[in-house]
Amino acid sequence: MPPIRPLHLAAEIGGPPRYEPEHYTALARLAEQGALDFVTLGDSFARPGPDALAVLSRVAPATRRIGLVPTVTTTHTEPFHVSSAVATLDWVSRGRAGWQADVSTTGAEARLFGRRPAAPAAELWREAGEVADVGARLWDSWEDDAEIRDTATGRFVDRDKLHYVDFEGATFRVRGPAIVPRPPQGRPVVVIDGTAEPARQTAARHADVVLVRATTPERTARIRDDVRRRAEAHGRHPDTLRVLAALTVDLGDAESAPEPGLASGPPLAAHGTYYRGGPVDLADLIGRWHRAGAVDGFHLTPITPGRDLERIVNGTVALLQHRSLFRTFHPGGTLREHLGLARPANRYARDHVLRGERA
Amino acid sequence: MTTAPKQLHLAAHFPGVNNTTVWADPRSGSQIDFSSFEHLARTAERGLFDFFFLAEGLRLREHNGLIHDLDVVGRPESLTVLNALAAVTDRLGLAATVNATFNEPFELARRLATLDHLSEGRAGWNVVTSSDAFTGENFRRGGYLDRAARYTRAAEFVATARELWDSWTPDGTPRPFAHHGEHFSVEGEFTLPRCPQGHPVVIQAGDSAEGREFAASAADVIFTRHGTLEAGRAFYVDVKGRLAKYGREPDELKIMPGVGFVLGDTDAEAREKAAALRLQQVSPQNAMLALEQVWGRDLSSYDPDGPLPEADPVPDSELVQGRVRLGDPLAVAARWRALSRQKGLSIRQTVIEATTRQSFVGSPGTVAAELAEFVAAGAADGFILVPNLTPGGLDDFVDRVVPLLQERGVFRSAYTGSTLRSHLGLAEPVWKG
């Protein structure tokens, strides 16, 4: 039997729109108490609610360990601004930032900007991949030790350690370098929901964490294998990504038995997989899927954030911890450390070394 | 009956990317770590300042085709930092410089409204524009806007943002929204209720005729460089005089010059410190760079301790990128030559003499008196202070000057309101449904 991989847990803290920061801070702190890897905050220009990245920036100084992963869309936004804002979230949270990349496919969203018409998802996911790519390049465009403060020569930075990215995509170009120095994690964590085909291709190539919505451990494992295979085809080691099963959970009636059919997996709902039942049965399900090697962990979306997240943390997570299936504290400080992902080497610094070797 | 003296407003600029921060000073800390922002913001709030102010850069500056490496460089993205600062401050206004050329109204209005909600009414937006293809190379838009278009776009941008901020009814119902103008065609539904301040405070930086007119029509605060008493009064009279044609009262636009300051135990000590500071800021390398910026040509063969070049400047040089040249280069060179001849100054000395901007230099008592005098004389409504050190550069001012301003009765001794508008004495904009 293969060794059990560490279990990773994440939770969505969005729900009906709220505009008071205390609401989000309380949820993030609750998730932090449960030692979860990260919280996500969904976002879109097409529905009421505050800007997710701003909310999680507001949450950052009020939390210490939990990873913070807002949705930031790539269709109507500027790739340069997106990369700066995500890097800055990493700075203000001291290495806890991620970014869930998403696209805006609707005409309603296009009309809010009036810049370009709506486009098919496949096209937009190709562009999202380019945005993720240029983001990573911009994050690398300052080598970690670019700031030298050399009083002898009067130089604040070593310009040889700053790099133009000169990115030419299908719909945009970026010259670089970044304005923001390389963030604490090197590159903040990229999360993509890889359930649907066009997104999966982009996820396999660019994401650190891939979310998957499937109803059985077998199906989830098949998608996980597929993502890993595709990642490998892009020259990545498949162990540099984590695949989390995405589950919408309703723990509203903890006394009731889980819905029929849960033994083999939750039923498919409009927004993916939907679980209704008690926190104990949810812990059993998580344990079962994880033991089966189907996933690296779970991303749970509470149907009612305050109530269900409390039950997840104090019920499900506590039980998983009691069964030694999940850690009881964050051993590291950064989101990459929670996920067991290495800090990426800087592609430009690597080039330096190669040039040096050739010289 | 005695009338209360006119109250002055104070804001703190975070000294990020520039050549005024003395990074070689051993007390100089990080310009990136959140702890630096937290320190300066908490200090400003301890000093009961109106707001904390962040500049913006969207492309690293270049000189002679190379990334400029002598100044402090590298900064986080402003609105993200300010949202984080909202968690560690309670009253301090939080203002970001955000470019209206390389953003879109819906997205930016949403980000600003979010900051206003999350900070409970403390958001400010310093509107700047760019006609710069150099900066545009980082954006989808590119850099095609000419000078005139960048201002009409900015004006329409601000107007569109205000329409978006007004698009929810005061009782919290979203209403469909449509704006079809020369630069923007936006329709749909905004995603946030009306802001705690009604609209975030709008700040305008810049001194051109277009900039002044734009400020008079649409801004709450104007950030200027008129630091001397005479220039300040002339600017003040001009800008305040432009408000009436937009149906606005003079008090609805606050004029706040950005100024430096150097404190000493005595005036003489402060003057000595200021001179030493200028020598640190204008290193031999920085002096040559400033000279090349005016001359628009490579002058690396010249000695910073020697005389100015004989050759004339190149007017349309692209030697300098991402930084504004100091006006007409031929005129500037003529002024610098005259200065150098008159006083027998070297290149470095000339640059120091010619580029030293208004700073309030003296003992805390002298500086407090001068600041109060500027406001009493109608040269400013207050000041945006630019410290020379990150992040501790405001500590002395707050500890030593603010109490004296309070004693004079020209500065608050407690926050009386909780929003930036209330600190500035500005009314909430009327909802235009």
Task: Explain what you see.
The complex is a heterodimer of chains A (359) and B (433). Chain A is an alpha/beta fold. In chain A, 38% of the residues lie in helices and 18% in strands. Chain A has eleven helices and 14 strands. In chain A, the strands form three sheets. An eight-stranded parallel beta barrel of chain A has the order 1-2-3-4-9-10-11-14, surrounded by seven helices. A two-stranded antiparallel ribbon of chain A has the order 5-6. Chain A has a two-stranded antiparallel sheet with strand order 7-8. In chain A, strand 7 and strand 8 (173-174) form a beta hairpin. The longest helix of chain A has 20 residues, at 121-140. Chain B has 433 residues and is α/β, with parallel strands linked by helices. Helix content of chain B is 38%, strand content 15%. Chain B is built from 14 helices and 14 strands. The interface between A and B is large, with 65 and 59 residues.
